[in-house]
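Materials and Methods. Structural model of HAT C-terminal dimerisation domain-containing protein. The 233-residue sequence of HAT C-terminal dimerisation domain-containing protein from Mya arenaria was retrieved and submitted for structure prediction as follows.
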Amino acid sequence: VPTRPTVRARVEKRYADERSNLISRLEKATSVSLTTITWTSNSTESFITVTAHYLDAEWILHSDVLMTRAMPERHPAENIASRLQECVRGFGLTGKPCNNDTALVASMKTTLRDEMTERFQPGRDETAESLPMLASLLDPRYKKLSFLPRQLRRRTHTMLEGRLDDVPLKDSSCDDGDCATPAKRPRLEFMVTFPESSVEDDLQLYLAEKMDDATPALEWWRRNENRFPKVAH
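The predicted structure was written out as tokens:
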């Protein structure tokens, strides 16, 4: 018979199971991006919601809500940061152009472009070395960085090269503990040179690759991860 105790017990068990599964998925993610939103219900109660965004091994983007909590206190940065830190600890996370625009649309685009230019200041050296520029470089559709002055594009390339040097490669043959035994080296291999691709080689090949602007970035990387392993990582 459905009663308050039995329903509550089922809900609590379901929550515990879902939370455990989510923590397991987060543990497998190389990195996690968190977003927060504060909102007010119809009964004027304030809440905060934290969402985690991460990629799985198949380059599929997941967005899972980690926490929704009442937040009756004011919402300055310090209080939001405190709730965010609480969530991080609880889940073990410490460690396309159009040429037929109407006049209104064209005006809106101009206004947005001017505001974005003022905010992000693409002519500054600091902008070339920022995370948004790095993300644009890693998106095959925008990797030419045509919105940056030519002299600053190289700075973004150099920043990526530096980060690639510091990131270890993932061994795709060792998932779930099932590591393939490396093949024996040919006895006469010393007579032939097989140079390993360097970070610079991998990056230059990626930059020279012809792209299809219709392909979403994550889908493109899922198909080409093995061709540019260092940049993909």
